[in-house]
Design brief:
By secondary structure, this protein is an all-alpha fold. The protein folds into two domains: 83 residues, Rna Polymerase Sigma Factor, Chain: A (Orthogonal Bundle); 72 residues, Arc Repressor Mutant, subunit A (Orthogonal Bundle), CATH 1.10.10. It contains seven helices and no strands. The relative contact order is 0.06. The C terminus is likely disordered.
Amino acid sequence: MEPEHTADRQRFEELFDAHYAELTRFASRRVGADAAGDVVAATFLVVWRRFAELPADHPRAWLYATARQVIANEVRGRTRWDRLTAKAAGIADTRVEDHAAQVDEQLRVRAVLDRLSPADQEVLRLIEWDGLEVAEAALVLRCSRTALKVRLHRARRRFAQRLLATEDRETAPVRRPSIIAGGSTTS
């Protein structure tokens, strides 16, 4: 209950005048000078709102206990803020990878694979993508292990050659057409 009477208001002002400086020093030692004013203001706001609960015989101790609670709230708030700031900084520091190069490479591999014969595609897919062992793939394709090893070796070689050929085309320097076709430039 807030002080409504003139006598209560005068008592509150006397309490404020008598203890403001010492509560500010108390708060400064605990939360620093920057936050001490806010702590003391919050303390006197609590006192104003709960003025009826203020003990007449020990108001100073009640003020300190209230200030201590306000300081505890301030410290908890700072700790949460520091953790949130650190977490946000950690999130900001994480780099989002650009997967465009990886997708581009996958598309290139698929395009090269599609240009191989169906037999080469099948043996490569069984071994490389499906993860079958040579013996298992030989059973699937109904051939001997030796025949499968030969087919796999040849398919890998053709695949590698075609993949390198696409890489060479992508990294080859761009040729500019000659301004004067068939003739030399002389100055």
